[in-house]
Specification:
611 residues, mainly alpha, Sodium/glucose cotransporter, two-stranded antiparallel ribbon, 26 helices, 2 strands, globular
């Protein structure tokens, strides 16, 4: 890096902290301002912020590693989480269902679904604890990736027996913590918008650079990591590397960290099952926080569409970096560690001056993910544990203090866990396919089956989380679909046992939940309590949403792949994908988009209205 690069990075860091601090007064009005922006933030701001939060540097590094090592097929591995395919479900129905609850956290939502007695409290407490655990794991994931990235450029040495990567991650976290702790969601979303502009400038430059200055050799080598810490080179071809059609089997060498994906077809099927379950069950953390903050059903849909469109530009950027890494390896020697392709390419191939903007943009991507994760995670301690069970009469000043303390403590714990885990894919795979699997079944069933009660949800979630931890301790190297099946299977059985061993949720609670949320599924005896003319309108909306989902999921996949193929200059594939994309977009318009303003509006049902 030249001196101008350092100046650009320092100016960016100063600017982002300043913007966050300027929002402190608005955020300090109370926890509703701090965590939801008083539900007055525009949909385009929430969508742009969501995109910036998804485009983290850790995820970009691991996604680049997969494209570098496997070519276009690497995209399909990241259906497990990196493609963020859950957005298709949030766009069509799950986003508006969550918005209708008018709550602050997913754990608070549990009392809306299961009631305010002990049953609802147990579900709320288990949900809060489990999401806080996931938040700490996500902070660890963020710290590992950002540490690897920043250490590559700043040359931070080891100190006090800790690596330069650890101190680089600490530097990033401290800076992001300043404005996150001070200004809450206001600071998070507006700094994310600022960072999003910088990120898009970065994406545009790299994509143009890859298209105009680099070509893939007909035959070249890539490298994969081995479990003993070494790396092994593998030869491949341009045609195979740029093929978008996934193979049923891979031939990763025995002993490779990637050999668990050799049954590639099975892995992809499990990822699709996982995403379908996860998308149909909703999500938690910073993603769902945007929907809790949305102003209407229509704006929930618009922010999703904008979010997904912006997020699609991540994949040509990833493909461009991987392509440049391949070209660089052909002339200078293959890059050993796929997870370092991103920082190595930026360091070696991007010119002085531009490099500063690029590094600042990628630091923006890292910090935007971190700030959203921490802000959302802290809300579960404040709203669902401290205020709900420890100090119900807490003042706004006390709640704000605990919001900031919770943020700091979770960050410290996440940073400490980086001392035991050094591989990005290792922690990401565990988050998405093991610990996430432990929560996924109860999270799904809560929407669609009236008989699931709070005890069943809590027991299923607790058992699944314990199964994920045991899997990590006892057999950490099994294929991800085995880890997923183990944790989700135990969770499913425990959920059924807990549900049928206890009495159903009170009908009055279920009726209130259903008439406000209006999900499809097994709600027969509750639906019979609602007038027939009302149910006809609800059924029309539900049918449209189900049909639209079948357009939205492939639409998102094809959108992302089309941009990738442009960077790889596979014009034959681009033309086919583009035709499919137009057809799917047309279907989405007629089944979903033109109905965004047609929310169900009926006369009084019970004591309230469906709005």
């Amino acid at each position: 890096m030249g001196w101008i690069d350092y100046v650009i990075v320092v100016l960016y860091l100063t600017g982002i902290v300043t913007i966050g601090l300027l929002m402190q007064r608005r955020a300090s009005a109370g926890i509703d301002s701090y965590f939801l922006g008083n539900r007055k933030l525009p949909w385009w701001v929430l969508g742009a912020s969501g995109m910036a939060s998804n485009l983290d540097v850790s995820g970009t590094m691991i996604n680049t590693a997969w494209i570098f090592a496997l070519g276009a097929m690497g995209f399909f591995i990241e259906i497990r989480g990196g493609v963020t395919l859950i957005m298709a479900f949030l766009m069509i129905f799950m986003g508006k269902w969550n918005r209708r609850a008018q709550v602050m956290t997913m754990a608070e939502w549990m009392r809306f679904r299961f009631g305010k007695d002990r049953e609802g409290d147990v579900a709320r407490l288990l949900a809060a604890v489990s999401i806080m655990v996931v938040t700490i794991a996500m902070i660890t994931y963020f710290a590992i990736g950002s540490g690897k990235f920043v250490a590559e450029f700043l040359g931070i040495p080891s100190f006090m027996g800790l690596s330069g990567q650890f101190w680089a991650a600490t530097l990033m976290i401290v800076l992001a913590m300043i404005y996150t702790v001070a200004s809450g969601l206001y600071g998070v979303v507006w700094t994310d918008v600022f960072q999003g502009v910088l990120i898009f400038g970065t994406i545009l430059f790299i994509c143009i650079m890859a298209l105009t200055k680099f070509n893939i050799p007909d035959v070249f080598s890539i490298s994969v990591p081995m479990r003993d810490g070494t790396f092994q080179a593998i030869q491949t071809t341009k045609e195979a590397w740029t093929s978008v059609l996934p193979q049923w089997k891979l031939n990763m060498p025995a002993g490779s960290s990637y050999s668990i994906y050799n049954l590639f077809g099975i892995a992809i099927l499990f990822y699709l099952i996982k995403v379908t379950i996860e998308g149909s069950g909703g999500t938690s953390g910073y993603m769902i926080q945007r929907y809790f903050a949305a102003r209407s059903d229509r704006e929930a849909g618009l922010l999703s569409l904008f979010w997904t469109f912006l997020l699609s530009f991540r994949w040509p950027f990833i493909a461009a970096i991987a392509l440049m890494g391949v070209a660089m390896g052909a002339s200078r020697g293959v890059i050993n560690d796929p997870e370092t392709v991103l920082p190595v390419v930026v360091n070696e191939l991007v010119p002085i001056g531009i490099k500063g903007f690029l590094i600042a943009g990628l630091m923006a991507a890292a910090m935007s993910t971190f700030d959203s994760t921490v802000n959302a995670g802290a809300s579960y301690w404040v709203k669902d544990i401290y205020q709900a069970y420890i100090n119900p009469k807490a003042t706004e000043k006390q709640l704000m203090l605990h919001s900031r303390m919770a943020s700091i403590i979770m960050v410290i714990l996440g940073l400490l866990f980086t001392l035991a885990i050094t591989n990005i894919n290792e922690i990401w795979g565990w988050i998405t396919m093991s610990i996430g699997a432990g929560m996924i079944i109860p999270t799904l069933v809560r929407w669609y089956w009236w008989r699931l009660n709070g005890y069943g949800f809590a027991i299923g979630t607790g058992a699944g989380m314990m199964a994920a931890i045991l899997q990590r301790l006892l057999f950490p190297n099994v294929p991800e679909y085995v880890a997923f099946s183990f944790a989700s299977g135990i969770s499913f059985v425990a959920m059924l046992v807990g549900t049928f061993a206890t009495k159903p949720t009170n009908d009055a609670v279920l009726f209130e939940f259903y008439k406000r949320t209006r999900p499809f599924g097994f709600w027969g005896h509750i639906r019979r309590q609602i007038p027939q003319n009302v149910m006809e309108e609800v059924n029309k909306e539900n049918k449209r949403d189900i049909v639209s989902t079948f357009f939205a999921v492939p639409w998102q996949v094809i959108l992302f792949l089309t941009f990738m193929m442009v960077i790889m200059k596979r014009w034959d594939t681009v033309s086919v994908l583009f035709v499919i994309l137009i057809a799917l977009s047309t279907g989405l318009y007629f089944t979903w988009f033109r109905h965004l303003s047609s929310e169900v509006k009926v006369e009084a049902v019970g004591d309230e209205k469906i709005v």
